[in-house]
Design brief:
The protein is of the alpha/beta class. It contains 8 helices and 11 strands. The strands form 2 sheets. The chain has an 8-stranded mixed sheet with strand order 6-5-4-7-8-10-9-11, with helices on both faces. A 3-stranded antiparallel sheet has the order 1-2-3, with no helix packed on it. Helix 5 crosses helix 6.
């Protein structure tokens, strides 16, 4: 999607305690529990926090998170409020930003939070943020949710340049298996196969891929200890991630 194309209408639906964000179709673009609006509801979105397994928990609040694609603002709210990080979100559609503020409890910008109306491809390619992002979370889908809007090797190279030396990118890949394999090949071509990890797909078909700026190969015991720390500190089901998360082969 480019800025010259018409942007889809944004709306929401409530089903029991869950509010869903839609871009003019029945496809879910994000969700929120009405009684716990700052938690991460969807399983695949929780998995986009797996970069926490590769950093010291005590360092998290000093780091910078960036989301390319706001969705229902789950990641943005969690990084800002629960993790106390400096948080920047880039979103192309002004209606999405307005909807998140009106319906999904997205706070106003402050000294740590900046929600930017802009094109993710332009932001990733620009020199302004290079080497400044510790956790880059990429979830870019159009209203039909068929394949990532930005998925080229050049785009992933720009993403890698945004990262600090121990920074990490997590990407939501959703679609046919052939689309996933193409996307994974582009990511590994940029980051190197030894720097890339992947989850098994969720029941809904979302596969989260994690790519490290500098490869790490922690032993299983280290990951288990880090996962327990993530669960204890922030309530994420990180202990379950290790059963479905491994380096790519």
């Amino acid at each position: 999607m480019t800025t010259t194309e018409p942007l889809p209408e944004v709306n929401f639906s409530d089903h029991g305690d869950i509010r869903y964000l839609h871009l003019g179709t029945e496809w879910v673009q994000g969700s929120m529990r009405l009684d716990d609006p700052f938690a991460i509801h969807l399983e695949y979105v929780q998995r986009m926090m797996a970069w926490l397994l590769f950093v010291d928990p005590a360092s998290v609040a000093r780091r910078h998170a960036m989301q390319l694609g706001l969705g229902a603002a789950s990641l943005t709210k969690f990084c800002h409020r629960a993790l106390r990080m400096r948080t920047t979100a880039i979103e192309l559609n002004p209606q999405v930003i307005a909807a998140c503020r009106l319906w999904f409890k997205l706070p106003r910008d402050d000294s740590r939070l900046s929600v930017v109306l802009g094109d993710a491809a332009e932001v990733a390619a620009h020199a302004h943020w290079r080497g400044q992002v510790d956790a880059l979370q990429v979830d870019l889908y159009d209203h039909e949710a068929a394949a990532p809007v930005l998925d080229s090797q050049a785009f992933y190279a720009d993403c890698r340049r945004l990262l600090t030396d121990d920074g990490c990118m997590t990407v939501n890949l959703f679609g046919r298996s052939s689309s996933y394999e193409r996307s994974l090949a582009r990511i590994t071509a940029v980051f190197g196969r030894e720097a890339v990890w992947a989850f098994r797909p969720t029941r809904e078909g979302n596969t989260i891929v994690l790519a490290l700026r500098t490869p790490q190969q922690p032993v299983r015991g280290e990951l288990a200890a880090r996962a327990e720390a993530v669960r204890a500190r922030w309530g994420l089901p990180a202990h379950k991630w290790l059963r479905v998360f491994k380096p790519v082969e």
